[in-house]
Specification:
- This protein is α+β, with helices and mostly antiparallel strands.
- The protein has nine helices and 14 strands.
- The chain has helices at 65-82, 104-119, 126-136, 140-143, 191-201, 205-224, 228-247, 258-272, 296-304; strands spanning 2-14, 19-21, 26-27, 31-48, 55-58, 61-62, 87-94, 148-151, 164-168, 175-181, 277-280, 288-292, 311-317, 322-323.
- Helix 1 (65-82) packs parallel to helix 2 (104-119).
- It starts with a strand and ends with a strand.
- The structure holds (3R)-3-hydroxy-3-methyl-5-(phosphonooxy)pentanoic acid.
- Residues 12, 15-17, 31, 103, 105-106, 137-139, 191-192, 282-283 line the site of (3R)-3-hydroxy-3-methyl-5-(phosphonooxy)pentanoic acid.
Length: 325
């Protein structure tokens, strides 16, 4: 009843932002992402008949109540499936800033899904594991997979057809994502609250979902023929359209800060100077730049020249969730 699993974070190039089913975490449209090494969560779980409640540690400290409740709710799904009533001790560690728009919930729930299934001897396929991880955090569905993956929206009301799968293996393309850390504090609007608010109040929401469906098709085609420029264009337009939808929500959800805006201009300048670099950004202010691996030193130097960027983290295509013990 013990297991340790690791999973990388992932960053979407075609973003997921909107749910067709809130309870099951089913997306209104599919998305495409990069699973990123070395950004990683390691999670150890021990189920025990002696525990009277779930005990959760995050980065060596007792986790906040809300975080523990979210984990417990997720473990309830696993307990129901494996017909176990035991509580668990969960120790989870991120090697990058937590809850700052760097998808720690994606790597976290992917690692937790794998570790808890293994600990309770629940046999799952990769698809079933992705479906399960999705229940913890939508984007976690993608962290189960390696390299470049696509999470299909699916059509079934029970969500069994809404899982991610790898469309390109990690060693098959030398691409990277440089993350500029502009504010490592926790994010102001959790993604679920922001998605629901945008869905209910943004006049741009429906257009955003339609555009995402088109972008996903084009992005998959671009990955198939490794058309980096095309994938980069889609990456930028998807991020801009997502943030346009949140900015048009009432009241607006402005995730960016001044440094994010400076990064947008900087990336356009890099391109004018011959560096193929493309901006993206999630539910936080951190600018993220898609580039070829060979261009990462130039992109890092450029991002570090911005006031407000304290450090950068460079991710390359990594493997899906895996067991350590
Ligand atoms: O998985 P969640 O609920 O944390 O949502 C992720 C939302 C974005 O990061 C903004 C976009 C994405 O596709 O990862």
């Amino acid at each position: 009843m013990h297991a340790i699993a690791k999973a990388h974070s992932n960053v979407a190039l075609v973003k997921y932002f909107g749910k067709r089913d809130l309870a099951l975490n089913l997306p209104a449209a599919g998305s495409l992402s990069l699973t990123l090494s070395p950004l990683e969560t390691t999670t150890q779980i021990d189920f025990s008949p002696e525990l009277e409640e779930d005990i959760v540690q995050l980065n060596d400290k007792p986790a906040a109540k809300g975080f523990t409740l979210r984990i417990s709710k997720f473990l309830d799904l696993i307990r129901t499936q494996s017909k176990t009533e035991f509580f668990a001790s969960v120790k989870t560690q991120n090697n990058f800033p937590t809850s700052a728009g760097l998808a720690s919930s994606a790597s976290g729930f992917a690692a937790l899904a794998l570790a808890s299934c293994h600990a309770l001897k629940l046999e799952t396929t990769t698809e079933q594991l992705s479906v399960l991880a999705r229940r913890g955090s939508g984007s976690a569905a993608r962290s189960i997979c390696s390299g470049i993956s696509v999470w299909q929206a699916g059509e079934k009301p029970d969500g069994t057809d809404s899982f991610a799968s790898t469309i390109l293996n990690p060693n098959d393309w030398d691409i990277a994502l440089v993350i500029g850390i502009s504010n490592p504090g926790p994010k102001k609007w959790g993604s679920t609250v922001a998605m629901e608010h945008t869905k209910k109040t943004s006049p741009y929401y429906d257009s955003w979902i339609k555009a995402t469906q088109m972008d996903l098709k084009e992005a998959i085609a671009a990955v198939e023929i490794k058309d980096f420029e095309k994938l980069g264009d889609i990456t930028e337009r998807s991020a801009h359209a997502m943030h346009a939808a949140t900015l048009a929500a009432r009241p607006a959800i402005p995730y960016w800060n001044g440094t994010t805006m400076d990064a947008i201009h900087l990336v356009a300048e890099l391109r004018q100077n011959g560096v193929q670099a493309y901006f993206t950004c999630d539910a936080g202010p951190q600018p993220k730049v898609l580039c070829k691996t060979a261009d990462t030193p130039k992109v890092v130097t450029a991002l570090m020249s911005l006031n407000g960027i304290s450090k950068t983290i460079t991710g390359s295509l990594g493997h899906g969730a895996r067991l350590i013990l």
